[in-house]
Amino acid sequence: MSEDAFLEAYDPAAFERPALTVDLVLLGLLEGRPAVLLMKRSWHPHAGRWAFPGSFVGLDETLDAAAGRVLQEKAGIAEGSGTRLEQLYTFGAVDRDPRMRIVTVAYLTLMPEAAFTQSLAGGAGLSAAVIEVPWTGEAGGPVAAYLAGDWDERAPLSFAFDHADILALAILRLRGKLDYSDVGFALLPEQFTLRQLQDVHEAILGTPLNKPAFRRRMLDRGWLVPTGAREAGTSFRPAELYRFQKPL
């Protein structure tokens, strides 16, 4: 039998097929803390709980295309507009969704402050939640999230599905990549100060860093290009602005 004949006779319904979704972990910084954009579900299942913006993947749609569509439709951000979008992990526990067997591919989306604020103000039903990470370094473990406006109330959000696990893995992955990759620059504007760069690292790692040692390490990598400009609107001596450029 030829391959053409085999494919013509093949029955796609011979095996049960799970549904496939994508979920976007939209991470940024808010008041010096790691924060994520979430949607409160108003429909079953898990009505009233918090979830990442996501969508089912169309049969004629690639995973990346579906993620880009969700980014634009539910976060109001066009792909390539200063956000960093990359696959995080595939979550496929049999009972992760009570409706049916649904496998989701989570995407980690890192957003500079301007994009984070734009999504929050875009009227797409997104809310900002501050993330609390009780573990240090790359130990891993559960995390908690609190609505930014209710931070003083200390009422942790209840997540839908396995989205709490997805968020915890996103933070773990981000911490693990921060020191050796360029991932931290995705949370910064195009031009930034060394102080802003250190603020990003301290916020993600959850620990203060030695200022001279940090700056020396960053400058020695050759990733930072001085722009010749200085920050504006400060009441103290304006710091020099840099931009990121990874060596070839």
The secondary-structure element order is HEEEEHEEHEEHHHEE
The tally of strands reads: 10
Tally of discrete structural domains: 2
CATH class of the largest domain: Alpha Beta
CATH architecture of the largest domain: Alpha-Beta Complex
What would CATH call the homologous superfamily of the largest domain?
Nucleoside Triphosphate Pyrophosphohydrolase
The number of helical elements comes to 6
Q: What is the average per-residue confidence, as pLDDT, rounded to a whole number?
A: 92
Beta fraction:
25-35%
How many angstroms does the end-to-end distance come to? 50 Å
Low-confidence stretches: none
Largest sheet: 8 strands, mixed
CATH topology of the largest domain: Nucleoside Triphosphate Pyrophosphohydrolase
Structural class determined from secondary elements: alpha+beta
Bulk shape: globular
Helix content estimate: 25-40%
The whole-angstrom Rg is 21 Å
Structure description:
- With 248 residues, the protein is an alpha+beta fold.
- The chain folds into two domains: 15-178, Nucleoside Triphosphate Pyrophosphohydrolase (Alpha-Beta Complex); 183-244, Winged helix-like DNA-binding domain superfamily/Winged helix DNA-binding domain (Arc Repressor Mutant, subunit A), CATH 1.10.10.10.
- It is built from six helices and ten strands, in the order αββββαββαββαααββ.
- The strands form two sheets. Strands 1, 2, 3, 4, 5, 6, 7 and 8 form an eight-stranded mixed β-sheet that branches. It has a two-stranded antiparallel ribbon with strand order 9-10.
